[in-house]
Fold this protein.
Amino acid sequence: MAIQILDQDTINQIAAGEVVERPASVVKELMENAIDAGATAVTVEIRQGGIGFIRITDNGCGIPKEELPLAFLRHSTSKIHSAADLLTVASLGFRGEALSSIAAVSQVELITKTTDSLTGSRYRIEGGEEKGLEEVGAPEGTTFISRNLFFNTPARRKFLRTETTEAGHVADLVEKIALSHPEISIRLIVNNQNRLHTSGNHNLKDIIYTIYGREIAGNLLSVSEEREGMQISGFIGKPVIARGNRNFENYFINGRYIKSRLISKAIEDGYKSYMMQHKYPFTLLHFTIEPELIDVNVHPSKMELRFKDGEAVYQMVYHAVTSALSGKELIPTASLPEPKVPNQPEVSDQPESQSQPEVPGRPEPFEKKRMEAMGIVKEPPSPYGKEPPVPPSAEEKKEEQLELFDGRLLSEEARKRHRLIGQVFDTYWLVEYDGSLYIIDQHAAHEKVLFEQNFASLKSREYTSQYISPPIILSLSMREAELLNRSIDVFRQVGFEIEPFGGSEFAVRAVPGNLLSLAKKELLMEMIDSLSEEGGRIAPESVYDRIATMSCKAAVKGNTNLSFAEADQLIDSLLKLENPYQCPHGRPTIISISKYEMEKKFKRIV
Ligand code: ADP
Ligand code: MG
């Protein structure tokens, strides 16, 4: 084939491949345009998963009639004028590719009116081909309809999933946008049914309630942090609502939903001592960062973001998370299942909290709504979203983790009024205090106390080295040897004396004193193994962490029979820790059962 320049239609279709992958991408671009246009209300309506029909209506500034055809040209935008503007761009879009791309692969109809003009205009463009431009009566703002997505590119249409799946992607996206813009009222209608409606009243918690439901909304801690050029506000979840994956780690930077490894790492590090391993927190954080401090990469569909000063961002997020978590009493309340009554039909085996009747009129978690949309759960349509979320009742509040600064179990004042009752099952100590029974896991408490003591002494270099003879010889793989070599200083700092012993072998001549009883070859290897999982450089903190974990494990084993006085002292030491509530592995050290809960079980209160 001879070399020739592609025609504009072909160019647009190729470009459209990058911008428009599925209905959700169309919805994303159009919603962003609506937001950029200053809309305070945006309605998204889809049918057939958005493949057949998408309509997005906004009350924004509208597009002047004479600019309409221009808006659909590739690289036409009103948001930047030159590459220099990219550095300070505050709008969501700026590449000017969305409208041309969407119009290249679907049948588009647009009705728009600006404040200044008396009439509105209606513009139609299908597969990149203009079909007409006329004057019509219209309200201020813009309505954008996309029909039959990929009607002219059947090959791409084949890549779409079922309508239900595509609708799910749209719903996910609309949720994210609703969460990122609490100041905009956002409505989603799927197959003629209202699925989400936020009020636009700026209240983020209401939106979290609407989308994630009661349990999450009832277990939030608020976050607010400010540094030069940067600000973080929003909510993070208490550890009880942790999840098994990162899907609930939401954060928005200048109104964009972003994934950033740096921010996720800072969040997870902040939670580390409060959370079981492989659990991830719920977060909903809004970052406001001066545009000069970030570099937004301009890949058509993915948003990459780099910080000018990553360390500062890390520190700020870490601090925001830890300061929200610390100082809160994070003791899970144990809710006992109802005792089964014989000769009575069994209704539910679930803990009460789950079998409580729903309060009428309360918005359902969006998840359920979405299942309904997919025909999995059926329920008559309700005036959903019209009424504000119902505040949690006293009953629900009981389910929350305690968060009382006054009357904290572990405050020094409270300590004096603790009544240590005794031990059960050789493991748990019972303490009565202020209308609650607290149950302390002796092993977990002990581990936590020792861990913190060891960690602190390693950190402040209050260690002793113990020489061992003969030395332990470690035979490592190349990779392990390299890793150890790179971090050998860190090991030395904490009291190891390790020397290269030729090839990939090392001689360990001394170990930290508190590790002496454990200084077996296998344990050292285990440590190097686990460190190597982290790849790259070893941070001193993670070496301290490992050593402290190992040494306290050993100590706890030989310490099962505590006297009252010893238990009392253990509780004392636990009390002094910054986070007494979780053992180093994230298991709870203390749980509580309130008097109220007990009286309910005994049917003294109904
Ligand atoms: P970009 O958003 O990157 O500028 P688009 O192709 O999405 O590019 O849109 C092109 C232009 O059309 C925008 O710069 C804006 O001026 C105008 N526009 C698009 N959608 C709307 C809308 N809903 N309301 C007002 N103007 C709009
Ligand atoms: Mg745009």
